[in-house]
Design brief:
This is Cytochrome P450. With about 110 residues, the chain is of the alpha+beta class. The protein is built from one helix and four strands; from the N terminus they run H-E-E-E-E. Bound molecules: protoporphyrin IX containing FE.
Length: about 110
């Protein structure tokens, strides 16, 4: 397995000095979309070989994340601080975490 490395798309010249920071607010007011028109963000590829399952993929992602957030309260294991979470990525065809994220769900709809 390759060692985790920083992703080349985290280029401060394309984004800003906080390119490495988890800062989703950077997309507020931006015209960058997921359709493959903007090379900063290409989760589904681009052009004629781009992913034909984009709509189904996004519907699935929204549905799963919505249910996880709606049905559970989430906590970090005791002793783990949010700023200590290891966000290192495993650079590959798709980019997963290098190390597992542990979080404790508690069902909240009983
Ligand atoms: C979040 C979910 C998904 C992501 C992130 C994703 C991402 C991708 C990416 C990056 C490619 C390569 C595009 C390229 O080479 O430029 C691709 C291709 C493809 N995807 Fe998806 N995909 C997702 C869901 C789906 C679903 C739900 C389907 C079908 C039901 C699907 C079917 C395909 C097919 C058939 C290709 C090959 C297209 C071709 O080579 O002409 N994908 N996908």
């Amino acid at each position: 397995m390759l060692p985790p490395i920083s992703h080349p798309r985290r280029d401060p010249n394309a984004w800003s000095e906080n390119a490495e920071e988890f800062y989703p607010e950077r997309f507020i007011g931006s015209n960058i979309d997921l359709q493959g028109h903007h090379f900063e963000l290409l989760p589904f590829g681009s052009g004629r070989r781009g992913c034909p399952g984009l709509q189904m993929g996004m519907t699935t992602v929204y549905s799963i994340v919505d249910q996880l957030v709606h049905c559970f309260n989430w906590e970090l294991p005791s002793g783990v601080n949010a700023k200590d979470i290891d966000m290192t990525e495993n650079f590959s065809l798709s980019m997963g975490r290098a190390n597992h994220l542990y979080a404790k769900p508690t069902y909240r709809l009983s």
